[in-house]
Amino acid sequence: MEIGIKIKRLREHKRLSQMELSTILGISQSKLCHIESNVDKSVDFILMHKICRFFEVGFDYFLEEKINTDFQNKNPKEVISVTNGYHSFPESLIGQINSLILDNTFKEKQIQELLAKITELQNSKK
After folding, report:
1. CATH number, span 1-88
2. Do 61 and 6 contact (CB within 8 A), yes or no?
3. What's the rounded Cα separation, in Å, for the pair 70 and 43?
4. How many other CB atoms are there within 10 angstroms of residue 6's CB atom?
5. What contacts 76, CB < 8 A, 6 or more positions away?
6. pLDDT digits (tens, 9 = 90+) for 108-126
7. Measured by CB atoms within 10 angstroms of the end CB, which terminus of the chain is less buried, N or C?
8. Comparing 26-30, 51-55, 86-90, which segment has the lowest mean pLDDT?
9. 115 DSSP assignment
């Protein structure tokens, strides 16, 4: 199953509109629409990290070939899925990806702090 379809199902399970989820993720509604319809397959790690964190699922959720679509009384991270082993990645690679995401998250926070300081300095000069 395609990543976009899985994102759409998670969104619909939470009863969110595309506009609501796109705002949460910090992307445009049209970008989310293109991702969900698999027109745009360029989902970067930072966006995937935001999606995984919001829906409380791991990256492996999107790597698995099949997924149980019975969400009635289940949290998405409890959904049991079946893999064929083909898409399994070594733990070391997943660890490296997680490290990169944490590093990027830390750098994003630093950037936001520096931008706030710049704004503060600009306002104090006025």
Report:
1. 1.10.260.40
2. yes
3. 25
4. 21
5. 10, 13, 55, 56, 57, 61
6. 888 889 999 998 888 888 7
7. C
8. 86-90
9. H
